[in-house]
Design goal:
The structure holds two protein chains of two kinds.
Chain A lengths: L1 E5 H11 L4 E4 L6 H12 L6 E4 L3 H13 L4 E5 L1 H16 L5 E6 L13 H5 L6 E4 L3 H18 L3 E6 L7 E5 L3 H7 L16 E2 L8 H30 L7 E4 L6 E5 L4 H13 L4 E6 L1 E3 L3 H8 L4 E6 L9 H8 L10 E6 L9 H13 L5 E2 L13
Parallel strand pairs in A: 2-3, 2-4, 4-5, 5-7, 6-7, 11-12, 11-14, 14-15, 15-16
Antiparallel strand pairs in A: 1-8, 6-13, 10-12
Chain B lengths: L2 H6 L19 H13 L3 E5 L3 H6 L11 E3 L5 H14 L6 E7 H6 L2 H10 L4 E6 L34 H6 L5 E6 L3 H13 L4 E6 L3 H4 L6 H10 L7 E3 L2 E3 L10 H6 L15 H17 L2
Parallel strand pairs in B: 1-2, 1-3, 3-4, 4-6, 5-6
Antiparallel strand pairs in B: 5-7, 7-8
Helix pairs in contact in B: 2-8, 4-6
Classes of the chains: A alpha/beta, B alpha/beta.
Chain lengths: 391, 296
Amino acid sequence: MLKQIEGSHAVAEVVSYCRPNVISAYPITPQTHIVEELASIVGRGDLDAEFVNVESEFSAASVVLGASAAGARAYTATTSQGLMLMSEVIYCIAGMRLPIVLTCANRAISAPLSIWNDQQDSMAVRDAGWIQLHAEDNQEASDLHIQAFKIAEQTFLPTMVCMDGFILTHAFEPVDIPEQKEVDAFLPAFKPKHIVDPRWPRGIGLFADPRFYMETRYILHRALEKSQEVIKEVSADFAKVFGRESGGFIKTYKLKEADLVIVSMGSVVGTIKELIDKLEEEGKKVGLLQICSYRPFPRKEVYNALKDKTNITVLEKCISLGRGGILASDIRWSFPRAEKKERNISSFVAGLGGRNISIDDLRYMVEKVEKEPVEFGFLGLRKELIAEKDM
Amino acid sequence: MTEKSRYLEGVEKKDLFAHGHRACGGCGQALAARLVHDAAGENTIACVATGCLEVFSSPYPDPSWRIPFLHSLFENSAAVASGVEAAYKALGKGPVNIIAQGGDGSTADIGFQSISGMFERGHNVLYVCYDNEAYMNTGVQRSSFTPYGARTTTTPTGNRTRKKNLPMIAADHGIPYVATATVDDFRDLQQKVKKALSIEGPKYIHILAPCPLGWGHHGELTVQVCRLAKDTGLFPIFEIVDGKLTNVRKIPVKVPVEEYLKLQGRFKHLFKRGVPAKEVAEIQEIANENIERFNL
């Protein structure tokens, strides 16, 4: 049913239809509205789940770890510092192959403290062994949660749904919220593989000496690579059942004819599409490649989409300090070394700590890379605030 | 009846924490873990923190556990156990005994917050702390349970602070059951585990578990060291049931702390050329305070 609803509440409602048995969370802006709404859904008896209010994100992640190891479908949500505090558990959850679903309401990381949106937080745990799916809008954010439980439980890989903090979590948009029975038909009950249960005593979380450790990492890496099949299947199934495209690996917009391609992910693609339309009226052919599944990284799909393109610019809300663009590195890596084709791949960081990315910023980027490629640059930087010696 | 059989009378022995683990000879923690889980029985889930117990009992592919064993990190066994309990509730499974456990470092230092959270939220979980008074797994570094005067690798001239009093802190959370025990009295330890598990809600048992390697006593003296810890007043034995101190163990014949300290290499520096340093008197003062406070 189409509802005018806040992003966080849409996600909470959809998560409740996924029937998690255990929810544990610690409040942090801008994740709060999601867990508040879930608490009230549980509180009024619309969802039969244990809601565990913990004393930190570290414990929230640990509680869902324990719950999942005991056979429960478990869910948590966090952002920024919360995800940083969880990070030790985040790695552990993946290593233990526990199919937990987490919503990351993407936010900047301290210092300085900033409650506003960028994507540095989920990027900081991109190597942990989780599937990471990025939502463009609140419809996709809601839809991705239904898919996330299915993908996680088929692959035994934890899955993080990333949605931009405030820009999505606090935005009211019309969202088509499915009914409970539709979600039930799409998402089967969780069938855990290994659980702690005195009827079948087993050890979960044994340590591995150098004879065994590396194989566990190999298997986890391969599992992530192989999960691409499941992500593809689940998003195709979703489209069939619910009648709209959500998720998958990549999405494109006016890419085929484009002379210049902008690559990005998350909510900023809406602004990018608007610019593309404007530029089209002005006679410029610019296209978009949007990454939805950031981990596993859809290298093949990216390559196929971009193989004939020579001018590419990557726009991202995160930075590897001392190195540059993170998504840009992934994109540059997507082209085989043996391929002799000359390509200009520019890299821009924008929107850190909630700095607005305007159409004019994007237009500036396009005009700049049309002249010459930019190895790495900041977009929308207020140079007047920076001392000469710090430039 | 021989002394040995009297000693073992009524003691549960099920080998749920099985032999073949890799603990040092005379390890107080291995003994404690065996007693705890044999008392708890088969219908038990062990949520174990990283540390000696985890390392000597759970190398892949040879764990020593005949009950379900769950380990993830150093500082979260209480939170993981909370999650297991929540799952059992949500799935309508159980009843089951859930025992979260760890050494003094994972309990009193790095995992302190997660334990406090578990107590405060009222999970039906027993937390067992195996207290060997330092970070033994990493090579005997000081923890907040390291007693005054003890030498560790990070307090080479002797620890300058007093031991954190976790049993009282646990009791102040308002949890229904807190107890202390040592590995020299098998029956008492096991009765406390059984009693704890019969009570709904969070429970805390603090077990003194000497470490021959870190304390510098001979492995065969582990039990003797425990007795002296009790009889000097340095480790009071009691229960706190619903906030009320009860079943305090009276010391039959009070022993000067010197006798306890002299058995252990970690206090050797306090007896240079046979003369007790001023710290010995200070440690005696701590024992005296305990004797008075708990009416030992």
